[in-house]
Design brief:
Elements lengths: L1 H80 L3 H15 L5 H26 L5 H13 L6 H32 L8 H6 L4 H6 L6 H28 L12 H23 L16 H17 L4 H31 L9 E4 L3 E3 L2 H21 L12 H27 L10 E3 L16 H19 L1
Parallel strand pairs: 1-3
Antiparallel strand pairs: 1-2
Helix pairs in contact: 1-2, 1-3, 2-3, 3-4, 5-8, 5-9, 8-9, 8-10, 9-11, 10-11, 11-12, 11-13, 13-14
Length: 477
């Protein structure tokens, strides 16, 4: 009963509170409902503005995209004037990515206009690619630009072909110019093909080499060919290597490897044949006057420079052997010419004998002939050692070659044979005159032993000649 009374008391309290506060609760409920309504309206307003913003942003993006396309032809023309090919490539790639598959006729028309301009750019780049001379760096850049502009050809291989042809044309042009000038000069020199020998017969070899002034046409031809090889051939080789290893941003055609090898050999064989024709008189096709002896060391140096350029590129042995063979033959030719020139100078000693005598306690009285002979031989030997016998990298040593050794022995034997003939002719020639003959000792004072007179008698000359022979054999040899 107590619990029932408690419940009844609570009920009475609740009813009294409800009657007392009913108006306030209604106001709170109304405020809450109003707040909920306002919040809902605000939320829908934000959503609406967001949708409008996205629509506006999309519209602006579309307008920007279309503006880029519509202005692309003008931008391409401006970039062509500024030579900004990289910018053109980027814009062209972007246009294809955005509108390449469009079906809108207006866009397709603009893309066709852009494509026409790109075709013209490709043609201009190909024209620059074919223009020579140019550097390897420029060619690689042009090739990459053509590839980026979707060129349908093989710009890398085209560059190789044109560079090879340019080198061949330059080499042949130099040779043709030499032939033309040689033919023009052939008629005046028809009856005297070696006029320089006549005037330089009694000039020493070293003096002739030091007297180089104006280069003959054939030497200029040799120099020009060497310059062409050193300036352009390395770029051709490197361009080919870059092409076949795929460094030119294009997939290489491996079927061209054999063709490239033939190109390299063609250039080297052409150079070798021209050098042989110009410098080696044993060549069957050589109908021109030989290179003057004073220019042979220079020519040998030029060919060696070509060989050094080729060796630095790590070319196949087949190619290197072509030039190496020319160098060996030219060295042998230079050796032959040097000693033949010395042999001719030795023959002329018979005309320069003045019978100025020196007395040697052991060898007797000698003239200047042995010393003159020794100077000529040593000069030829020193020049041969400096320019010919000394072999450089990958060159065949002459001293290890049987042909070269036999040739050298014959040449030296010829010099000594000629000197023996000079001694015989001078000693047995009773008509040789000598005025104011004196006999000098090694100390420089006059000695007696011959009857001094204006002219030596035949017996005295014969005795001096015998002493000359003994002195040459016992002292100089």
């Amino acid at each position: 009963m107590e619990q029932l009374d408690t419940l009844f008391s609570l009920k009475q309290s609740y009813e009294a509170d409800f009657e007392k506060n009913n108006e306030t609760l209604f106001r709170v409920e109304e405020a809450i409902n109003q707040s909920l309504k306002e919040a809902t309206n605000l939320f829908h307003g934000v959503l609406s503005r967001r949708e409008k913003a996205e629509a506006t942003r999309n519209a602006l993006a579309v307008m920007t995209r279309y503006k880029f396309l519509f202005q692309l032809p003008i931008n391409i023309d401006r970039n062509i004037k500024n030579e900004d090919v990289d910018v053109i490539i980027n814009d062209y790639a972007r246009a294809l990515n955005l509108f390449g598959k469009t079906e809108v006729s207006v866009f397709k028309k603009i893309l066709e206009e852009v494509e026409v301009k790109i075709i013209n750019i490709r043609m201009n780049l190909k024209s620059k690619l074919h223009q020579m001379p140019t550097t390897l760096k420029q060619q690689k850049k042009i090739i990459r630009n053509l590839v980026a502009l979707n060129d349908n050809g093989d710009p890398g291989w085209e560059a190789i072909i044109h560079m090879k042809q340019y080198i061949i044309d330059r080499i042949k042009a130099s040779y043709q110019q030499f032939i033309t000038e040689e033919q023009e000069n052939e008629t005046p020199n028809k009856n005297n093909r070696h006029p320089h020998n006549k005037h330089k017969r009694n000039i020493s070899l070293s003096q002739q080499i030091e007297s180089q002034n104006t280069e003959p046409k054939k030497v200029l031809c040799i120099d020009e060919i060497a310059t062409v090889i050193s300036d352009y051939f390395p770029d051709l080789w490197k361009l080919g290597q870059n092409y076949f290893v795929g460094d030119l941003a294009i997939k290489p055609d491996c079927s061209h490897e054999f063709d490239f090898k033939e190109m390299i050999l063609d250039i080297i064989v052409t150079v070798s044949d021209i050098y042989r024709t110009i410098m080696l008189p044993t060549t069957t096709t050589n109908t021109y006057s030989p290179v003057p002896i004073i220019w042979l060391p220079h020519c040998l140096k030029q060919i060696r420079s070509v060989f050094s350029v080729l060796m630095a590129l790590d070319l196949p042995n087949e190619a290197l052997n072509k030039i190496s063979s020319v160098i060996f033959d030219l060295r042998l030719h230079c050796l032959n010419i040097l000693f033949k020139q010395a042999s001719e100078q030795i023959i002329q000693l018979k005309t320069t004998e003045t019978w100025k005598l020196d007395f040697h306690s052991k060898q007797g009285t000698i003239s200047q002939l042995p010393n003159d002979f020794y100077k000529i031989i040593m000069e030829a030997m020193n020049l041969a050692k400096e320019y010919v016998i000394r072999n450089e990298r990958r060159e065949t040593a002459l001293v290890d070659n049987d042909t070269a050794k036999n040739e050298l022995q014959l040449l030296v034997h010829k010099c000594f044979w000629n000197f023996s003939q000079v001694l015989e002719q001078v000693g047995l020639n009773a008509d040789t005159n000598c005025s104011s003959t004196t006999i000098m000792s090694l100390g420089g004072s006059s000695v007696t032993g011959f009857k001094l007179q204006n002219e030596l008698v035949w017996e005295q000359k014969l005795l001096v000649t015998i002493s000359n022979s003994h002195y040459t054999r016992n002292v100089m040899l």
